[in-house]
Amino acid sequence: MNLLFDTNIILSVIRASDKNGIIKFLNSENLPLYVSVVSEAEIKSIALQNNWGSKRRNLLDIFFDQVNIVDVNNFNVHIYTEIDAYSQIANPAFKTYPFATPRNMGKNDLWIASLAALLGLRLITTDSDFDHLNNIFFDVRKIDQKDLLPFFKSK
């Protein structure tokens, strides 16, 4: 199953001192990597807001040259609405839910989730925003931040 990196994973890759190592850890099967244009916009906004230098911006450009960037399009709209309604416990296609209260998702996360579901990609992330969608709409591989520490220089 091909992989979709969440924005927090891209940020970890760019910040890592061992970029090849962290990518091999995240993608041990050397599968094609995908990034949503939404994540591309998010990370470029982070770079701008935090005044990243040319070295880090160049690393970001190199990373984006090595992955498949997928745009949000009309095909995502249907699955976006399905996931949003499911997250709010209001999708008529589901009779029961494995959670008792709505799971409010950010709009960017909804677009990223809809892309993962539409293309059948496994989403790689470090946060819990997508947990309730795992094995319902797509597979989620949640990475613990402490497992990424070996790829960063200790200060």
Task: Tell me about this structure.
The chain has 155 residues and is an alpha/beta fold. Helix content is 47%, strand content 11%. The protein has helices at 7-15, 19-26, 37-49, 54-65, 74-87, 107-119, 145-148, and strands at 3-5, 33-36, 68-70, 122-125, 140-142. A five-stranded parallel sheet has the order 3-2-1-4-5. Helix 5 (74-87) crosses helix 6. The longest helix has 14 residues, at 74-87. The chain is globular and about 50 Å long. The model has no long low-confidence stretch (mean pLDDT 95).
Question: What topology does this entry show?
Answer:
Blueprint lengths: L2 E3 L1 H9 L3 H8 L6 E4 H13 L4 H12 L2 E3 L3 H14 L19 H13 L2 E4 L14 E3 L2 H4 L7
Parallel strand pairs: 1-2, 1-4, 2-3, 4-5
SS content category: alpha/beta
Poorly predicted regions are none
Largest sheet data: 5 strands, parallel
The Rg value, from CA coordinates, equals 16 Å
The H/E string reads EHHEHHEHHEEH
Shape: globular
Strand content: 5-15%
Order of strands side by side in the largest beta sheet? Answer: 3-2-1-4-5
Which features would summarize this protein structure in a list?
155 residues; alpha/beta; 5-stranded parallel sheet; 7 helices; 5 strands; 11% strand
